[in-house]
Amino acid sequence: MTSEIRRIFAEEPEAFDPRKYLIPAREKVKMTVQHKIRDVFGSSNKA
User: Fold this and answer.
1) pLDDT digits (tens, 9 = 90+) for 5-44
2) 28: which of 3, 4, 5, 38 fits an S-S bond (Cβ 3.0–4.6 Å)?
3) How far is CA 44 from CA 29, 30, 35, 38, 47, in A?
4) What ranges in 1-47 are assigned the alpha helix state H?
């Protein structure tokens, strides 16, 4: 999440509205968790 916020601030330093940087940051966290479940832990579709 932090790396995504830093990337956005580097590309758009005027982006001070939290909606501008938190929405993509949350999406990055979601993608990271999905990757960990699916590829790292091998837990995809298992109960």
Assistant:
1) 999 999 999 988 888 889 999 999 999 999 998 888 887 6
2) 4
3) 17, 15, 10, 5, 9
4) 2-11, 18-35
Tokens coding 28: 């990055």
Residue 34 CB neighbours (<10 A): 11
Judge whether 25 and 1 are in contact, CB under 8 Å. yes
* Tokens linked to 13: 């330093």
Q: What is the total residue count of the chain?
A: 47
* Beta carbons of 8 and 15 less than 8 angstroms apart: yes
Q: What is the pTM of this model?
A: 0.65
Q: What crossing angle do the helices spanning 18-35 and 2-11 adopt, rounded to 10°?
A: 140
The amino acid present at 17, given as its one-letter code, is D
